[in-house]
């Protein structure tokens, strides 16, 4: 019984220390996206080029996924 409790406490300790790295990063720039007829400001956390297309790692509402630059109407990103 004590082994189970120790294992549970260890797992709880590890899960408390492992936060999402992406959410702790500071955004590089901002972009605007037209979603549902509304212009939303989206924070950009990284920029990359894949097959001559620029992609942004976009925060909310894109859930920190790589999104094509074409999905944004305006951007302050320099890359």
UniProtKB/TrEMBL annotation:
Stretch forming the signal peptide: 1-23
Assigned keywords, A-Z: Signal
Claim: Signal is one of the keywords in the record: yes
Protein name as annotated: Cor protein
Species name: Enterobacter vonholyi
């Amino acid at each position: 019984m004590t082994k189970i409790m120790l294992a549970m406490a260890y797992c709880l300790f590890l899960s408390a220390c492992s936060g999402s790295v992406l959410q702790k990063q500071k955004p590089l720039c901002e972009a605007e996206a037209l979603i549902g007829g509304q212009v939303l400001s989206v924070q950009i956390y990284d920029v990359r080029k894949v097959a001559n297309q620029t992609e942004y790692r976009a925060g909310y509402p894109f859930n920190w996924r790589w999104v094509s630059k074409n999905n944004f109407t305006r951007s302050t990103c320099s890359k």
